[in-house]
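Hey all, quick one. A colleague (J.T.) asked me to put the 4'-deoxy-4'-aminopyridoxal-5'-phosphate job into the tracker so the inputs and the C-alpha cells live in one place instead of scattered across chat threads. No bug as far as I know, just bookkeeping. Sequence used:
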Amino acid sequence: MRIYNFSAGPGMLPEEVLAEVQKKLLDYEGSGMSVMEMSHRGKHYEAINAEAEALLREIMNIPDNYAVIFVQGGATMQFEAIPLNLAKFCAGDYVVTGNFAERAYKEAVKFGDYKEVASSADRKHTYIPELNASTFRTNIDYVHICYNNTIFGTKFDKVPDTGDIPIVADMSSCILSEEYDVSKFGVIYAGAQKNAGPAGATIVIVRKDLLGNERKNCPTMLKWSTQVKEKSLYNTPPCFSTYICMLVFRWIKKNGGVKAINTINKKKAKMLYDTIDKSKFYSNKVEKAYRSIMNVPFTTPSAELDEKFIKEAAAEGLTTLKGHRLVGGMRASIYNAMPTHGVEKLAEFMKKFEKENK
Ligand code: PMP
C-alpha cells in the first residue's frame, strides 16, 4: 500500500511515473536493458537527455540565452560551484534566510570576498528581510538567495531588485511549484529530489553570458561551461535520475504545466494553513506574506502532543511529519506529487486530533 509521505526530501514521485518506470525497467524501448545499464553515449540515453532539457525549457519557459545542465553532487555541490564559476570580482552578497542559505554562504567565504548582507536569523527565520538595490554592494559577481526555505517554511514573495547584479537562486524546494520569470535570474539551481525526480540529478540553469568567468583553478567537474559544452555528458551523468526527471517533466506538461500545478499547490497549502489559522491548538510562526506553499511547519501546544501527533498520524498512513530539529514540531512537505487527497486526509486528521487532545 502506498502511504502519504510528507518528507522534506526525497519527496513523493507521481505514481504514474513510478508505474512507467516499472513497466520499462527490464527492457527500455526494445533495448533489452534498463536505463540504469545503458551507455550514456547510446541513442536511448541521448534521447532521454535531450528530452529532459527540452521539456524543462518548455515547462519553465526558459529563454534561449540560458543553458540547462543536469549534474551530480546535489544543491550542496553548487554552493561551491557558484563562487568558483562566477569569479570576475571574486565577490558576492548572500541573503541568509535559513540553514541552506547559510551553508551556501559558508562555502563561498572560503573563496574570496563574500558577505552576508541581510539575514532573518533575528526572528528565527520566520520572514524574508526587506531587500532593495541599496542592500547590495557594487562590483560583485552575484547576489545569492534561497527562494524557498525548506526547514523554516518561508518563501520569497517576489524576486528582489538587485539592479544589474545577477541573482543566483537555490530553488531546490520550489522549482516547478510555481511559475518563475527565468529572465530575472542569473542562475537557478536545484537538487531534483523534491519536485523534479529522485536524488542524484541537480538542475542548473545559467544565463549564457555568465559562463566563462570561472577561476583558473576551478575543478573541471564543477565548471558549468564544461558541462554546457558537453550537454551534461562530460562524464557519466546521473542517467537513471535524469530519466525519471524527464518523466516527471512529461507528467507536469500533461497536467497542464506549472501554472496548473501551482493552482493545485496553492489549494493544498491553503487547506493546511486554514486548518492552523482557524484553530487555537496549532500554530505556524511564519509571517503570512512569506509562507511557503511547499513546506508547512506547525506545532501543537506541547512537545509531548507533537510526538503523539506524529505517531498517530503515521498509524493512519500520514508519514514523515516530524519537523526539522532546528524548528521542532511538525512539518508537512507538500511537493507537486503529493496528491490533494493526502493533504485533505492530513487536514482531517489535524481537526480530529485537536478535538481529542485540546
Ligand atoms: N537547498 C535547499 C533549499 C534544500 O532544501 C536542500 C536539501 N534539503 C539543499 C539545498 C541541499 O540539497 P542536496 O541534498 O541536494 O545537496
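Adding what we noticed when we looked at it: The pocket of 4'-deoxy-4'-aminopyridoxal-5'-phosphate is lined by residues 8-9, 74-76, 100, 146, 150, 170, 172-173, 191 (CB under 6 Å). The mean pLDDT is 97.
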